[in-house]
Write a structure and sequence with these properties.
The structure holds two protein chains of two kinds. By secondary structure, chain A is mainly α. Chain A has two domains: 2-80; 83-142. Chain A is built from five helices and no strands. Chain B is mostly helical. Chain B folds into two domains: 1-79; 81-142. Chain B has helices spanning 2-33, 37-66, 68-79, 81-109, 114-141. Chain B is flat. The mean pLDDT of chain B is 85. The chains are: A mainly alpha, B mainly alpha. At the A-B interface, helix 2, helix 4 and helix 5 of A face helix 2, helix 4 and helix 5 of B.
């Protein structure tokens, strides 16, 4: 349980660091990139706000867990629950297969309308496939 | 083991059906849609790639049905817990890395081309939706 408490504390610190560095990076990018289109500026702002909000929500959750021993215990049991772990693993396996198949189909369909979109999706599929091969090789060595 | 044999037979049948229908769909798509050259190239690439994989699959699975020892080995390899565990673990890691790279690429691309950014964002959103849907399914099933 002490180890789990440490993990929660570490996550809290990570979120604080993320919020601080994210905001700094945002202002730095705004200053350095003057000839950037409005779309990019808007997107960066959106990402910063979204990321900071998520981090804030997670930080509040961590705070609550660190102060309430009963809730911490519940969270610990939930994180160690074999059923949840199994669901998470099974989900990722199925979801990655479905996503790859959908991307493959989308490459063909968008090929009829926009070459840029089709090429982007093709690059995405290629990178994903390379990652699959690399991670598989890593786990085969590790396990 | 009998069930595994049936599974292999079904896979071979599916590969054969895929080979034949793939050729038919390709010809139909080219005729009906009058696709641009680029799309024709993609279609022929996808078709030839899938056909190669299917034919390879057929030639890999056929000998297994005729040789009992090879069939046993394939069965053990398929049901091996270590392999299943590796697949599951790697899928989880792959998903996280892919999403992170796509998000970074979307930010970088926003400085050059909004279409690429939107495409990558749509891809990330789709991945999220699929993950939520599959989680809901497994929460009910398991």
């Amino acid at each position: 349980m002490e180890k789990f408490k440490k993990i929660i504390k570490f996550r809290f610190q990570l979120c604080t660091m993320y919020m601080g560095s994210g905001t700094m990076l945002y202002f730095l990018l705004q200053r350095l990139t003057e000839n950037v289109p409005d779309f990019s500026r808007g997107m960066l702002t959106g990402l910063l706000v979204g990321g900071d909000l998520l981090a804030l929500v997670y930080m509040i959750r961590c705070c609550v867990l660190l102060r309430d021993e009963k809730k911490l215990k519940e969270a610990y049991i939930k994180s160690k629950d074999e059923r949840n772990n199994e669901i998470s693993k099974e989900t990722m396996r199925t979801a990655s297969v479905i996503t790859l198949m959908c991307t493959g189909l989308a490459i063909i369909i968008t090929g009829f309308f926009s070459i840029t979109v089709s090429m982007t999706l093709f690059a995405d599929l290629t990178v994903s496939t390379l990652i699959v091969l690399l991670v598989n090789a890593f786990y085969k060595k590790k396990m | 083991m009998e069930q595994f044999r049936k599974k292999l037979r079904r896979r071979i049948m599916l590969s054969v059906i895929f080979c034949l229908s793939g050729l038919f769909i390709y010809a139909a798509l080219i005729r009906i849609t009058g696709a641009p050259e680029y799309t024709k190239g993609i279609l022929i690439g996808v078709l030839s790639g899938s056909l190669t994989v299917s034919v390879f699959n057929i030639f890999r699975l056929m000998p297994l049905l005729q040789d009992e020892e090879k069939l046993k080995k394939a069965y053990i390899a398929e049901t091996d817990e270590r392999n299943t565990l590796i697949q599951k673990e790697s899928a989880r890691t792959v998903m996280s890395i892919s999403i992170m790279i796509a998000a970074l690429a979307a930010i970088a691309a926003s400085f050059f081309n909004p279409v690429i950014t939107l495409t990558l964002s749509a891809n990330i959103i789709l991945t999220g939706i699929v993950s939520i849907a599959v989680t809901a399914y497994y929460n009910k099933k398991l």
